What we know:
Layout: H1 16-28, H2 35-47, E1 51-55, E2 58-62, H3 68-76, H4 99-112, H5 118-140, H6 143-152
Antiparallel strand pairs: 1-2
Helix pairs in contact: 2-4, 2-5, 4-5
Amino acid sequence: MRQVAINVYKFSELSDKAKEKAKNVYRENTDSYNGEYFYSLKKLAEHFNSKLNVTYNRYEFDTPEMEDADIQAKMNELGTFNPDTLQGHGECVLTGCSTDEDAIDGFRRAWHKGERDLERLLDAASNSAMESAESEYEALFEDETFAEHCDANNYEFLDDGVISRHE
């Protein structure tokens, strides 16, 4: 038997080239869409007696016919918001996750722009949620944020940026 000692590094200790490699490998092995966003959209659809269908990373909604007053009443149950910005105050009434607000805000903005078709309102919610998911995902790859993520998950790296697979 032989023993080999290797050096492992925190992300913040890597060279710039190794940091880029570490982020690229991580990016290749993770999905850009956060499951919390999907769950928020699913719960928003259910709130409006609709169903969320997913095919090939595309979201489609099966919606019932609803009167404007009924949509408005159900929307009023989704929490309070700033009337100037139309952004929610963070009640996260669907799942308890902040992703609820991203979806609800998109729905609310479309409503206040005059959209009354429930399917289009839910599409606006989906677009808003996915934009937030993409933005959040891209922000993860800023060096400081990625370093925090790696530290929180106890990721260690070899000097070339490859994640160390030791126990």
